[in-house]
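In the current project phase, the collection of sequences with tokenised folds has grown. A representative record is quoted in full directly below:
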Amino acid sequence: MKNFTINSCLLVSNFILLLSGTHASAQENTPKRLDSLFKEIAGDPAIHFNGTVLVAEDGGIIYKNSVGFAQIDKKVLNGSSTHFSLASLSKVFTDVAVMQLKENRQLDLDDPLVKFLPDFPYPAITIRQILSHTSGLPDFEIFQSYVDRSSNKPLSNQDLIPALRKWGKLVAEPGARWSYSSVGMGLLALVVEKISGLSFPQYVSMYICKAAGMKDTYVYTPDSPKPDSQLAVLYANAGSSAPALSPDDSVKTDLTNPFQTIVGPGLVVSSAEDLLRFSQALYNGKLLQAVSQAEMFAPVKLSNGSFAQLPGAPLYASLDWGIDIDSSAGKIASHTGGNPGISTILLLNLRTHKTVIVLENTDNMGILTLGINAMNILNHKPLMHFGPGRI
């Protein structure tokens, strides 16, 4: 999505875009411009960037840099091999899993979800509509009246359908408009499990990570903890109101919070280097055939015949990814993630095989400015300014 993109709260709705009106001189080369951009973002006290950036073309790293701490108390610095929680950027793994099952003719995107999950209360909603966020399903607000906060009992994907039934209403008619739903992605993870006979973490490990040569990536769930000395701790970011991140601000786990427990829409852990391997595996057809990728990255049409667009951003909605409406520099697909203590963005130029990855273990908008403008530099386009705000 992004030159902006999709996030658990729809990051892009906060954007105010203005062309900077300036181009770097012809003498400036790309790595220098990227370094200048990184230092500007990293040095801005209002952003308090704490993470890593990696920029590549055809698999070759053009620029990488990191700032801040993965673990403050142990003085572990962030780097390109640091393991970051991805938040909603995890959804790209769900996308690929569903498309792989479609390639194997184990499902059709226009199948109704009830074909695989008979208790699902909306028989007209299809897999394609869920994957493209045009199903009309609500988001995680369905748990507001479902969760017993006093018990701290972990939520799971098995709670999605009962919570939907209790909630009892859609936000729109299926196919009528784009409306972000992590609930839908959690339901698709259940479909992956039912068809494959594997748990969702097992499927991701076997059919995505292994195929792409990814060594740092896994699905982290509270009921199957994986000790990881390279995992970045999540920190709340006070921006310019605090001189530094504090261990006391570390984000605590709440097992009644669906963002902490439900697989499909989140909970993937990865590194910048591994996400580069993921992007290369897409470019090289190791994860999906060209025809499947073309379908995954194609703008989707609504029931009125118009292309679905993301509110507040110059992006079409595809099958979960955001696609730049302006394709003059190539077809740009992107996705973001944002939760307390997490900010992430992945941008792919599908035509030129340029990749931008920004991962952060705090919650602010620095990744948006850095990621989008890094891709603009690669594409020789003017930089953009973004209004203040957080994910």
Observations:
- The radius of gyration is 20 Å.
- The longest helix spans residues 182-196.
